Amino acid sequence: DQVDVLKEHILEYLGEIYKLEMTDKQGGELLLLIKGIDDIERIADTVRSDVIPLARAAHAQDVESTDTTRHILQALYQKVCLAVQQATEAIGDVDQNKALEVINMKSEVDGLIDDALQYQASRVAPTTPDSIATFRMEDDVIDAMRRIYRLSKRVAKLMLPDVISIKEA
Predict the structure, then answer these.
(1) Is the CB of residue 132 less than 8 Å from the CB of residue 75?
(2) Rounded CA gap, 16 and 68, in Å?
């Protein structure tokens, strides 16, 4: 909810800026900021609607993952948090290097996701309701982290329109 309030204040401020006389370049930069704000809000929505309820459910149900699963998911979480931080700093600092760092994290994030899924597959097939619930919860966490990283990458790409258009051509 705080993110929504903050977004509204930022959009009001950007709306005031939009009323000023701007060059085409400044207008384009303003549009990028607005797009970035939307993606950052989507990240916050994913945390609010997916990650927090999953954490609460895991705590309430006393779900216990293995040490290996916790280690893998923690490494994924830390990498995704870094991506969010770097992407927002790339926008705030108008820093293409930070944006490139986020985009270049893709193989590492994908590797961490693959590690988590492979470890899950290597464990004994779930036969109890508790183990099925644990697997389902782990999958939901992995999916949320994947979505958050993809949104972070979208924010970062806003800083690299020339690089992205060349790559996509």
Answers:
(1) no
(2) 51
Per-residue pLDDT, 164: 46
Quote the DSSP letter at residue 21: -
Distance of CA 1 to the CA centre of its chain: 18
86-to-45, 64, 104, 144 alpha-carbon distances in Å? 19, 31, 11, 18
Helix (H, G, I), strand (E, B) or coil at 126: coil
pLDDT at 136 exceeding the cut of 70: yes
DSSP string for residues in 50-80: IIHHHHHHHHHTT----HHHHHHHHHHHHHH
Q: pLDDT-derived band of residue 80, with 50, 70 and 90 as boundaries?
A: very high
pTM of the model: 0.80
**CA pair distance 106, 110, nearest whole angstrom:** 6
Question: What are the distances in angstroms from CA 42 to CA 36, 85, 105, 106, 168?
Answer: 10, 15, 20, 19, 24
Measuring CA to CA, which residue among 85, 79, 81, 73 is closest to residue 140? 73
H/E segment holding residue 25: helix 24-46
Instruction: Write out pLDDT tens, residues 96-111.
Output: 999 999 999 999 999 9
CB 26 within 8 A of CB 38: no
